[in-house]
Predict the structure.
Amino acid sequence: MLWVNLGLVGLTVAGAIVLISTRAPQLVPAGRILAALALQISGVLVVTWFLVSRGQTHAASLPPPPAVEAAIWAGVSGPALASLELVLVSVILGTSIGTAAAALVAWARSTSLELLIGVGSLVWIIPTFLIAILAQDLQATIYNLTGARVSGGYGTASLGQLLWCAAVLSIRPAAYAFRQGNVLISDQARAGHVRTAFAKGLLWRTIVGRHIIRPTASGLVQTAASSIRLMFGALPLVEFFFAYPGLGQLLLSSLGVNSGIQIQTPNPSLAIASAVLLASMLAVLEALAKALTLRFDPRLAEAAA
Amino acid sequence: MSRDRIQRLLLLASAIAVLATLATLVFIGLRIPDRFATDVWAAHYFHGTIPQPPFLAGSTLEVSSDRSPQVRELHFYVLGSDAGGRDLLALTARAVVPSLELVVLALIARMVLGIGVGFVIAAGTEPLRTIARSAGTWIAGFPYLALAVLVIQSFTGGPSTVAVPGRTRLIGFVVAIAVVGWRDVAELVASRMQWVDAQPFALGARAMGSSGLGLFRRHVWPYLRQALTIELSFQASAVLVLLAELGFLQYYLGGFTQLFEGIGQAAPSFQLATSPELGQMMSDVRLYLLRQEFAPALVPALTLALAALSFELLGRAIRGRTDLPT
């Protein structure tokens, strides 16, 4: 019942936040985000518990959940840190580079750079599993040609492994952030105030920084949030593929998925904990993005208030 | 002809070309005798060597099956073989049919669920709308692959096993794929319905006494139908990719026979599909890659990726025609 209790705690916290917000109107925008976050995490807890418990009724071989809560935390803390590292590196590699490239294309105003848009669309279509296969093919080719082991070890959270996983994980989100960012920036670049600024003789970099990027900032943050969602979606796949010891890999192994390398005993409590932690990380990052969106767009903040 | 129209025609031509290529390969694959996709094959001493499966693409070998080891046959492996010496082209062609059946079933479930919830959000009572939106938020809270795995697990109790699966596994797959992707369809339906609802022609029709099914059929459906056709294409692509990812994570429909290559049961084993399905063909990808055998990993992966690509291109080709006026 630990998970149901935690779900109820989440619901209570959400209720408390709503009550506090009603007493202090200046806290309403932040309260709304935090209450939604607490509600979402409690919902995820209860749904995950329900799904895993239902699965247990079909699999008699699964052991009962461990009695000591500390054992669960000890089991998930390491993978949680590893996954967090991977996600942060992927966000830097993927979302940031994608958004920066979109801004660069707008800033440079070069037709040759517009080819990048086509490339971005093409990369976006390639499924993550194919990118992962090609990455491993590349590792093997480099090894066969030079004798250098560039994979960073298999099944470890080494720097090399982290970079390979992050590269594979971030390619599609980068393409998404680039495409969407480019559309937003191009639309903004055609706006009346940009033409006026251009006619007044302002420097192009000033126009881009002050009159194009700044008004699109909230849209760009929303795009970044969507690309992070994509990243989390493919996280279990990439971790399983490279045997990266993160939450996705832990979730699958504790559900009884045999990696072919090591045999893991199914553990429903670890499965619930890892799924909930993954979803919580995503929810927190999305809440942060929402808060940033409100900060960048005063109209949205006003509406929320 | 405008640049936009040329671009759309190019996309359409590309989609048709990819689909036609795949269909041709499937047709050729289905003409290879069944035994090359079902039996386990070993090669004999040929041109100075005894090749071990997986056999290379483009190789002609003298092989015999485990069912009749005394009969030797000369066979040309167009795309190579899997670890059981089975022709990859024959195997993939036979895997396409059940995979597409599953895609169609899952797609119907996803669209029905999405359209139903979209209706509730757009036209339901306030409590129903709140419930529908909250369910959407909770579903959005999960990473999609983790949610799909958890839903299938709740039906089957674990990843795929040697046993030939029953109807429960199929239901689990259909429900999982529907649950993961209905939200996009629901949001599309709700936004289109709300857009039509605010238009002067809809207000006029309502003022003239039109309501219910008549209003929907005459004024809402024409806008919804176009959008749903495009969404269907994108969703087909997404379902194919999800199927491949689930297969890779050992969640697939068919049963299998295990092929142990090491000593003892603890050694990594290949899972040879008894009734091949594309997702299942992805389940051994990691093992093949660890052994640097790329053909058995790339053939099903590329087939799935190309099929998904063709649906994506098709969706993009027809998308521009149905954008709402702003």
Remarks:
- The domain at 92-253+310-322 of chain B is CATH 1.10.3720.10 (MetI-like fold).
- The beta strands of chain B are 41-43, 59-65, 73-77, 256-260, 269-273.
- Residues 212-248 of chain B form the longest helix (37 residues).
- Chain B has eleven helices and five strands.
